[in-house]
Amino acid sequence: MSYPDVRYLGDKGEISAVYRPADRGPELMIGSGTAVRYLATGASTHGQFGLYRWEARPHTPGPSAHFHRTMSESFFILSGTVRLFNGERWIDATAGDFLYVPEGGVHAFGNESDKPASMLLLFAPGAPREAYFEALAEKAAGRK
Asked: In the predicted model, is pLDDT for residue 38 greater than 80?
């Protein structure tokens, strides 16, 4: 494996970092169970990746088994227990556990436990997932 092609051709570095403080609230609530924080959108990373923090209340279901044709999805558990489906079996993942799902890989997730859970979701490349998440929130609110 080699390094990717050079993407920055400037003579000097530039000021272009994007900062999001921890105390900023979630951008989105899906139903009454899931808060979503947009940490790095595909737009802010120029399509390289999208990173989101999901905070799920107890007994909050996630999507059923599905796959993505154009992007991978990775899960890093921050707290609680998240039930992850890796295409073959369900895994009770806890803080520090990680699951990588390549393009075409079947997966699902949810919080079936009695305690809150949080995780980071990483999509690569950074497809515009925000519109999809917002449509889920609208549907959960009965507006679509």
From this structure: yes
